[in-house]
Amino acid sequence: MGALTWSAGVLARIWCLKNVRARTPALHRRNLRRRSAVSRLMHDNTAYARGLGRAFVGALLFALPLFMTMEMWEVGATGDPLRLAALLVATFPLLVGLSYFAGFEHAFGLVDHLLDAFAAVAIAAVTGTLALALFGVLSPQHPLTELIGKVAVVTFPAALGALLADKQLGRSAADEDGETRNYWVRLFLMLVGALFISLNVAPTEEMVLISYQIGPLQAALLALVSLALLHALLFWVDLKRRDDPPRQNFLSVLIRYSFAGYAICMLVSLFLLWVFGRTDGVPLESVIAYVVVLSFAGALGAGLAHAVVAERRD
Length: 314
Hints:
Blueprint: H1 2-27, H2 34-67, H3 70-78, H4 81-101, H5 110-134, H6 144-153, H7 155-164, H8 173-176, H9 183-201, H10 205-213, H11 216-238, H12 250-275, H13 284-309
Helix pairs in contact: 1-2, 1-5, 2-5, 2-7, 3-6, 4-5, 4-6, 4-7, 5-7, 9-12, 9-13, 10-13, 11-12, 11-13, 12-13
Protein backbone atom coordinates (compact mmCIF):
# COMPACT_ATOMS: atom_id res chain seq x y z
CA MET A 1 0.00 0.00 0.00
CA GLY A 2 2.95 2.29 0.60
CA ALA A 3 3.99 1.96 -3.05
CA LEU A 4 0.47 2.83 -4.18
CA THR A 5 0.35 5.90 -1.94
CA TRP A 6 3.78 7.07 -3.13
CA SER A 7 2.94 6.54 -6.78
CA ALA A 8 -0.40 8.32 -6.46
CA GLY A 9 1.34 11.28 -4.83
CA VAL A 10 3.96 11.39 -7.59
CA LEU A 11 1.31 11.35 -10.31
CA ALA A 12 -0.66 14.12 -8.60
CA ARG A 13 2.42 16.34 -8.32
CA ILE A 14 3.44 15.66 -11.90
CA TRP A 15 -0.05 16.52 -13.14
CA CYS A 16 0.08 19.85 -11.30
CA LEU A 17 3.57 20.67 -12.60
CA LYS A 18 2.64 19.84 -16.18
CA ASN A 19 -0.49 21.97 -15.91
CA VAL A 20 1.58 24.97 -14.86
CA ARG A 21 4.28 24.44 -17.50
CA ALA A 22 2.11 23.41 -20.41
CA ARG A 23 -0.57 26.03 -19.99
CA THR A 24 1.67 29.05 -19.39
CA PRO A 25 2.25 29.90 -23.09
CA ALA A 26 -1.46 29.69 -23.85
CA LEU A 27 -2.52 31.75 -20.86
CA HIS A 28 -0.17 34.59 -21.77
CA ARG A 29 -1.04 34.94 -25.43
CA ARG A 30 -2.36 38.30 -26.47
CA ASN A 31 -6.08 38.71 -27.00
CA LEU A 32 -6.81 35.22 -25.60
CA ARG A 33 -10.14 35.23 -23.87
CA ARG A 34 -10.48 33.87 -20.36
CA ARG A 35 -13.12 31.36 -21.40
CA SER A 36 -10.92 30.09 -24.20
CA ALA A 37 -8.03 29.59 -21.76
CA VAL A 38 -10.24 27.62 -19.34
CA SER A 39 -11.58 25.52 -22.19
CA ARG A 40 -8.04 24.77 -23.40
CA LEU A 41 -7.01 23.83 -19.85
CA MET A 42 -9.90 21.40 -19.47
CA HIS A 43 -9.23 19.87 -22.89
CA ASP A 44 -5.51 19.37 -22.14
CA ASN A 45 -6.32 17.89 -18.72
CA THR A 46 -8.71 15.43 -20.35
CA ALA A 47 -6.16 14.48 -23.00
CA TYR A 48 -3.46 13.95 -20.38
CA ALA A 49 -5.82 11.86 -18.25
CA ARG A 50 -6.59 9.67 -21.26
CA GLY A 51 -2.86 9.34 -21.89
CA LEU A 52 -2.37 8.15 -18.31
CA GLY A 53 -5.20 5.66 -18.72
CA ARG A 54 -3.58 4.23 -21.85
CA ALA A 55 -0.29 4.15 -19.97
CA PHE A 56 -1.74 1.86 -17.29
CA VAL A 57 -2.98 -0.51 -20.00
CA GLY A 58 0.38 -0.41 -21.78
CA ALA A 59 2.29 -1.09 -18.57
CA LEU A 60 0.17 -4.16 -17.87
CA LEU A 61 0.36 -5.40 -21.46
CA PHE A 62 4.11 -5.02 -21.88
CA ALA A 63 5.09 -6.40 -18.48
CA LEU A 64 2.45 -9.13 -18.09
CA PRO A 65 4.87 -11.96 -19.03
CA LEU A 66 7.24 -10.74 -16.31
CA PHE A 67 4.45 -10.37 -13.77
CA MET A 68 3.70 -14.07 -14.29
CA THR A 69 7.31 -15.35 -14.39
CA MET A 70 8.50 -17.13 -11.26
CA GLU A 71 12.15 -16.32 -11.90
CA MET A 72 11.35 -12.60 -11.75
CA TRP A 73 9.72 -13.11 -8.35
CA GLU A 74 12.84 -14.92 -7.14
CA VAL A 75 15.12 -12.17 -8.43
CA GLY A 76 13.06 -9.58 -6.60
CA ALA A 77 13.06 -11.64 -3.41
CA THR A 78 16.70 -12.79 -3.34
CA GLY A 79 18.53 -10.44 -5.72
CA ASP A 80 21.15 -7.96 -4.64
CA PRO A 81 19.34 -4.68 -3.84
CA LEU A 82 22.31 -2.66 -5.10
CA ARG A 83 22.17 -4.40 -8.49
CA LEU A 84 18.43 -3.87 -8.78
CA ALA A 85 18.98 -0.21 -7.91
CA ALA A 86 21.69 -0.07 -10.57
CA LEU A 87 19.19 -1.42 -13.11
CA LEU A 88 16.68 1.32 -12.28
CA VAL A 89 19.30 4.08 -12.21
CA ALA A 90 20.82 2.97 -15.51
CA THR A 91 17.50 2.66 -17.28
CA PHE A 92 15.84 5.87 -16.08
CA PRO A 93 17.75 8.05 -18.61
CA LEU A 94 16.43 5.70 -21.30
CA LEU A 95 12.90 6.48 -20.17
CA VAL A 96 13.63 10.21 -20.37
CA GLY A 97 15.00 9.77 -23.89
CA LEU A 98 12.07 7.60 -24.94
CA SER A 99 9.71 10.27 -23.65
CA TYR A 100 11.02 12.48 -26.46
CA PHE A 101 9.46 10.06 -28.95
CA ALA A 102 6.52 8.89 -26.84
CA GLY A 103 5.37 10.59 -23.65
CA PHE A 104 1.77 11.31 -22.75
CA GLU A 105 1.40 14.57 -24.68
CA HIS A 106 3.46 17.19 -26.52
CA ALA A 107 6.33 18.23 -24.25
CA PHE A 108 7.85 21.69 -23.85
CA GLY A 109 11.41 20.73 -22.92
CA LEU A 110 13.63 18.57 -20.77
CA VAL A 111 11.62 19.15 -17.60
CA ASP A 112 8.47 17.81 -19.24
CA HIS A 113 10.37 14.73 -20.45
CA LEU A 114 11.62 14.17 -16.90
CA LEU A 115 8.07 14.51 -15.58
CA ASP A 116 6.78 12.02 -18.14
CA ALA A 117 9.52 9.56 -17.16
CA PHE A 118 8.68 9.92 -13.46
CA ALA A 119 5.00 9.46 -14.29
CA ALA A 120 5.80 6.29 -16.24
CA VAL A 121 7.77 4.90 -13.28
CA ALA A 122 4.93 5.73 -10.89
CA ILE A 123 2.38 4.09 -13.19
CA ALA A 124 4.63 1.05 -13.52
CA ALA A 125 4.98 0.77 -9.76
CA VAL A 126 1.21 0.97 -9.25
CA THR A 127 0.54 -1.55 -12.02
CA GLY A 128 3.20 -3.93 -10.75
CA THR A 129 1.98 -3.72 -7.17
CA LEU A 130 -1.64 -4.37 -8.10
CA ALA A 131 -0.84 -7.21 -10.53
CA LEU A 132 1.58 -9.00 -8.22
CA ALA A 133 -0.78 -8.62 -5.28
CA LEU A 134 -3.65 -9.98 -7.37
CA PHE A 135 -1.51 -13.00 -8.35
CA GLY A 136 -0.64 -13.65 -4.71
CA VAL A 137 3.03 -12.83 -5.20
CA LEU A 138 2.93 -9.99 -2.67
CA SER A 139 1.79 -10.70 0.85
CA PRO A 140 1.77 -8.67 4.08
CA GLN A 141 3.78 -11.46 5.67
CA HIS A 142 6.73 -10.84 3.31
CA PRO A 143 9.60 -8.55 4.45
CA LEU A 144 9.47 -5.01 3.15
CA THR A 145 12.73 -5.43 1.23
CA GLU A 146 11.27 -8.43 -0.61
CA LEU A 147 8.10 -6.53 -1.52
CA ILE A 148 10.10 -3.58 -2.83
CA GLY A 149 12.44 -5.87 -4.77
CA LYS A 150 9.62 -7.73 -6.52
CA VAL A 151 8.01 -4.48 -7.62
CA ALA A 152 11.29 -2.82 -8.57
CA VAL A 153 12.42 -5.62 -10.88
CA VAL A 154 9.32 -5.27 -13.09
CA THR A 155 9.17 -1.49 -12.97
CA PHE A 156 11.35 -0.72 -15.99
CA PRO A 157 9.57 -2.95 -18.55
CA ALA A 158 6.22 -1.73 -17.25
CA ALA A 159 7.42 1.88 -17.52
CA LEU A 160 8.43 1.24 -21.12
CA GLY A 161 4.94 -0.07 -21.81
CA ALA A 162 3.46 3.01 -20.16
CA LEU A 163 5.41 5.33 -22.46
CA LEU A 164 4.80 3.32 -25.62
CA ALA A 165 1.10 2.82 -25.03
CA ASP A 166 0.00 6.26 -26.14
CA LYS A 167 1.06 5.53 -29.74
CA GLN A 168 2.23 9.12 -30.20
CA LEU A 169 5.76 8.02 -31.00
CA GLY A 170 7.69 10.04 -33.53
CA ARG A 171 5.62 13.18 -32.94
CA SER A 172 8.54 15.19 -31.68
CA ALA A 173 9.24 18.60 -33.09
CA ALA A 174 12.06 17.17 -35.18
CA ASP A 175 9.79 14.62 -36.84
CA GLU A 176 7.02 17.10 -37.44
CA ASP A 177 9.47 19.34 -39.25
CA GLY A 178 10.44 16.42 -41.45
CA GLU A 179 13.89 15.92 -39.96
CA THR A 180 15.14 12.35 -40.25
CA ARG A 181 16.44 10.60 -37.18
CA ASN A 182 20.19 10.53 -37.05
CA TYR A 183 22.63 7.73 -36.41
CA TRP A 184 22.82 8.14 -32.64
CA VAL A 185 19.05 8.22 -32.28
CA ARG A 186 18.81 4.90 -34.10
CA LEU A 187 21.44 3.40 -31.81
CA PHE A 188 19.54 4.69 -28.79
CA LEU A 189 16.32 3.06 -30.00
CA MET A 190 18.17 -0.20 -30.64
CA LEU A 191 19.45 -0.04 -27.07
CA VAL A 192 15.92 0.38 -25.70
CA GLY A 193 14.55 -2.46 -27.83
CA ALA A 194 17.38 -4.82 -26.93
CA LEU A 195 17.04 -4.05 -23.24
CA PHE A 196 13.30 -4.62 -23.17
CA ILE A 197 13.31 -7.97 -25.00
CA SER A 198 16.40 -9.25 -23.20
CA LEU A 199 14.86 -8.34 -19.86
CA ASN A 200 12.02 -10.75 -20.60
CA VAL A 201 14.46 -13.64 -21.13
CA ALA A 202 17.48 -12.97 -18.88
CA PRO A 203 16.05 -14.22 -15.56
CA THR A 204 14.64 -17.48 -16.96
CA GLU A 205 16.23 -20.89 -16.43
CA GLU A 206 15.64 -21.77 -20.08
CA MET A 207 18.26 -19.24 -21.14
CA VAL A 208 20.84 -21.01 -18.97
CA LEU A 209 19.71 -24.44 -20.19
CA ILE A 210 20.08 -23.43 -23.84
CA SER A 211 23.57 -22.11 -23.10
CA TYR A 212 24.61 -25.50 -21.70
CA GLN A 213 23.00 -27.42 -24.56
CA ILE A 214 24.98 -25.73 -27.31
CA GLY A 215 28.66 -26.16 -28.00
CA PRO A 216 31.22 -23.57 -29.13
CA LEU A 217 30.41 -24.09 -32.83
CA GLN A 218 26.68 -23.75 -32.22
CA ALA A 219 27.30 -20.62 -30.14
CA ALA A 220 29.32 -19.10 -32.98
CA LEU A 221 26.59 -20.03 -35.45
CA LEU A 222 23.94 -18.50 -33.17
CA ALA A 223 25.95 -15.28 -33.00
CA LEU A 224 26.15 -15.13 -36.80
CA VAL A 225 22.43 -15.84 -37.12
CA SER A 226 21.67 -13.09 -34.59
CA LEU A 227 23.80 -10.61 -36.52
CA ALA A 228 22.18 -11.64 -39.80
CA LEU A 229 18.71 -11.30 -38.28
CA LEU A 230 19.49 -7.84 -36.97
CA HIS A 231 20.94 -6.78 -40.30
CA ALA A 232 17.93 -8.10 -42.21
CA LEU A 233 15.53 -6.21 -39.93
CA LEU A 234 17.51 -3.00 -40.26
CA PHE A 235 18.23 -3.18 -43.99
CA TRP A 236 15.06 -4.65 -45.49
CA VAL A 237 12.41 -3.85 -42.87
CA ASP A 238 13.52 -0.59 -41.28
CA LEU A 239 15.96 1.57 -43.22
CA LYS A 240 14.73 0.63 -46.68
CA ARG A 241 11.24 1.89 -45.98
CA ARG A 242 12.47 5.35 -44.98
CA ASP A 243 13.56 8.15 -47.23
CA ASP A 244 16.86 8.78 -45.50
CA PRO A 245 19.27 10.80 -47.63
CA PRO A 246 21.63 9.44 -48.73
CA ARG A 247 20.16 6.03 -49.55
CA GLN A 248 21.76 3.42 -47.32
CA ASN A 249 23.58 0.57 -49.02
CA PHE A 250 24.05 -2.98 -47.75
CA LEU A 251 27.65 -2.60 -46.59
CA SER A 252 27.03 0.77 -44.94
CA VAL A 253 24.15 -0.61 -42.88
CA LEU A 254 26.22 -3.67 -41.94
CA ILE A 255 29.17 -1.65 -40.65
CA ARG A 256 27.45 1.38 -39.15
CA TYR A 257 24.26 -0.17 -37.79
CA SER A 258 24.36 -3.97 -37.63
CA PHE A 259 27.80 -4.38 -36.04
CA ALA A 260 27.17 -1.49 -33.65
CA GLY A 261 23.68 -2.78 -32.84
CA TYR A 262 24.92 -6.29 -32.11
CA ALA A 263 27.65 -4.88 -29.86
CA ILE A 264 24.92 -3.00 -27.99
CA CYS A 265 22.94 -6.23 -27.63
CA MET A 266 25.96 -8.02 -26.16
CA LEU A 267 26.66 -5.22 -23.68
CA VAL A 268 23.01 -5.10 -22.63
CA SER A 269 23.01 -8.88 -22.20
CA LEU A 270 26.14 -8.81 -20.07
CA PHE A 271 24.72 -6.04 -17.89
CA LEU A 272 21.44 -7.89 -17.29
CA LEU A 273 23.24 -11.14 -16.56
CA TRP A 274 25.28 -9.30 -13.93
CA VAL A 275 22.18 -7.69 -12.42
CA PHE A 276 20.45 -11.08 -12.10
CA GLY A 277 23.55 -12.75 -10.69
CA ARG A 278 24.03 -15.09 -13.66
CA THR A 279 27.75 -14.26 -13.93
CA ASP A 280 28.65 -14.93 -10.28
CA GLY A 281 31.15 -17.76 -10.02
CA VAL A 282 30.63 -18.78 -13.64
CA PRO A 283 33.55 -19.62 -15.99
CA LEU A 284 34.27 -17.15 -18.77
CA GLU A 285 33.23 -19.56 -21.53
CA SER A 286 29.85 -20.03 -19.87
CA VAL A 287 29.37 -16.26 -19.55
CA ILE A 288 30.15 -15.88 -23.26
CA ALA A 289 27.57 -18.57 -24.09
CA TYR A 290 25.00 -16.79 -21.89
CA VAL A 291 25.68 -13.50 -23.68
CA VAL A 292 25.36 -15.09 -27.13
CA VAL A 293 22.05 -16.76 -26.28
CA LEU A 294 20.60 -13.64 -24.70
CA SER A 295 21.83 -11.45 -27.55
CA PHE A 296 19.69 -13.46 -29.96
CA ALA A 297 16.58 -12.10 -28.24
CA GLY A 298 18.17 -8.67 -27.93
CA ALA A 299 18.91 -8.55 -31.66
CA LEU A 300 15.24 -9.09 -32.42
CA GLY A 301 14.25 -6.24 -30.12
CA ALA A 302 16.95 -3.95 -31.48
CA GLY A 303 15.97 -4.61 -35.09
CA LEU A 304 12.28 -3.94 -34.55
CA ALA A 305 12.60 -1.06 -32.08
CA HIS A 306 12.84 1.74 -34.63
CA ALA A 307 9.99 0.29 -36.69
CA VAL A 308 7.77 0.29 -33.59
CA VAL A 309 8.82 3.76 -32.50
CA ALA A 310 8.27 5.09 -36.00
CA GLU A 311 4.55 4.40 -35.86
CA ARG A 312 2.35 7.46 -35.70
CA ARG A 313 -1.10 7.92 -34.39
CA ASP A 314 -3.21 10.00 -36.69
